[in-house]
Batch of 3 targets.
Target 1
Amino acid sequence: MIKHILFDLDGTLLPMAQDEFVECYMTLLSRYFIPHDIKPEILINAIWRGVGAMVKNNGSCTNEEAFWSCFTKLLPVKKETMEPMLLDFYNSDFNQAIKSTRPSPCAPKLIRALKNAGIRLYLATNPIFPRCATLNRIKWAGLPAEDFEEITTYEAYHYSKPNVLYFKELLDKYSLNPKECLMVGNDVEEDVIIRELGVKVYLVTDCLENKKALALSADYKGSLEKLTDEAVLGTG
């Protein structure tokens, strides 16, 4: 019996084309830092190198620590100066990136139905963003953050998708039985990997990500609307 559902955010509860979102996000970020005399090409390179450090994180530090350790080495600005500016960006100009997403009325309806059914919900979004950036993306999706038992962000996690240890860290934190869990995501590489831990997967196909053309080995698949209808009817 499913008692716990783990949800991805970007492309799942918040429909988007990942490439469009990233392009919009990086453009906004570059513009924000122009007055601070940080060249866009240097900034973007540092961001991607920082993301790479989080993806390669071996668990020896938090993703936040891995990011900043790499990021600040590539910029002519100290962390003490850069961090407040970056967090201000995520709380201001970053919100314009909602225009690159396609919020769906299905997401709030689905979450509400599952909450009413007593299912415990966890936002298993890739923890490569600060909490404030993730909370804002949750708002874009029309969802209350308090509906989730956990929201995975870079401050508290030591691995990133597609490392299966990221999911193990989440399951262990709440002592979750894999057989009582379901993962709902849209990325074949990043989300389906949780099956290695014995968790079944529902692959949302609206904004399917499968850059490596991997086999669609999820247990279930379909649209977010289909999953919502099943939850509302009590047949999911």
Note: The CA atoms of residues 192 and 218 lie 6 Å apart.
Target 2
Amino acid sequence: MEASSQKQANTDGKIFLTADWRHLLLVNYEVNPDILAPHVPRGVELDLFGGKCFVSLVGFMFLRTRLLGKLPIPFHTNFEEINLRFYVKRKEGEETRRGVCFLKEIVPRYAIALVARKAYGERYVSHPMSHILDIKNSALAVNGRVVYSWLDEKRHSIGAKCTGNPSYPAAGSQEHFIIEHYFGYVKSPAGQTVEYRVEHPEWRVLSCKEPRVDVDVARTYGPEFVEPLSKTPASVFVAEGSPVTVRQGRILPEAAG
């Protein structure tokens, strides 16, 4: 359930899970907002950067996972996730809450997908997955590869090479926009909107080169995404990640009817 960062502690809901999210590869594409309109939950609106709408293919490691912040699930604590997400926002009093919505989330274990679907109504599926991370001294190596893949009837993968040293993204940059979203929003089958908060410190990012996306987009995400995801990405980078806390969700009152 990869969402976004939160710099200050809060008490929005009890803890649903804690985990480490590490080595997040983000491949970002500009997309026509009309493609996303049917997927936007009630009570939120698309969040634009420079007047443009973006989706992101994101692969990362989900580590040390504990439900309710306490309970590890045997054989389900460390695994890969790949998701396709887009960016939304809503007003809560004087606060603008920036969040993400997921078009599909892929994990390697059926039980993980089942829990996420039941708890939040998220669009999780399960397939065998693998990854390649070139690590040196506990960090991603310069010119090291980051690759995440899954297998249904064929193998799909996203990958790139890291360059340079990690640094905090500049305010107002595309990297800052992409990772600085603090909430997840889910459109339920009943038409309700569920909001949940994700907390973690600010992430440093690494630049990338030689991105490679080998995905059957029509098969995985639908034919409407073939054209935008066939373009050269608007940006590609890796976020180092950190421990995260995912809060239990709530139905938005204005979207409950």
Note: The first helix runs from residue 33 to 36.
Target 3
Amino acid sequence: MNKELLVSNQVDVNKALEFWGDMESYNANLKEYFNSLLSKLNELNGYKVNKDVNNYAILAHSMKSEAKYFGFMKEADVFLAHELKGKEGNLDYINEHFDDLKKTILRINSLLSEYFGVSKEKFNILAVDDSQIVLNFISESIKDKYNVIKAFNGLEAIKKLEEYNVYAILLDLNMPSANGFEVLNYLKEHGLIDRIPVVIITGDDTVETINKAFSFPILDVLNKPFTPENMQRILDSIASFYERKAKEII
């Protein structure tokens, strides 16, 4: 991670270090901030669409403060303007200038993607299964287009979710040390279930299991054994999920 990259993009890192104390603490918390940016953009958009100016102003205030903590001073001014207009109940301003706010968030996200070395060409897909054979098959099928992060059980999956920006999850259900349903509950409890597309990969195709899986807002179910063609269909569905999300934000 190159501090000069941030400084050259007018991030006041030295000012931020007065708060965080050292680069280690700064980077650890900056990574969490980075991981939350797009979900907060989506949340702001939801408040705008629902004309919920009170919660819009509260979130804009939080984003203003966070931006300052990390040295994004100019960006903080954008969030401040939206905070104040939200407190005034000025929906006309919010609607008219939301695109500027969106571009500000995406600019921060792009800069931090480069700072943390997140691939611009490959997204992370978390594959969770207690079978090494299944994980290897998934990896070989999609490694040209995606970074595959492997987890052999639910507990490992949850740790990976805390460490990485995850584009999608391929999730087995029957595993030791926290099964797939426990991972789904974790995603739900942490507000991730609607943000990250989840595809269930399972050999259990009983009606009870499938219905229980679809009680969560999962994207699809892929029955084992599956083929590269099946995988491509799933990848297309994941891409469509993000296309729909992008239209919601716009």
Note: The longest helix spans residues 23-49.
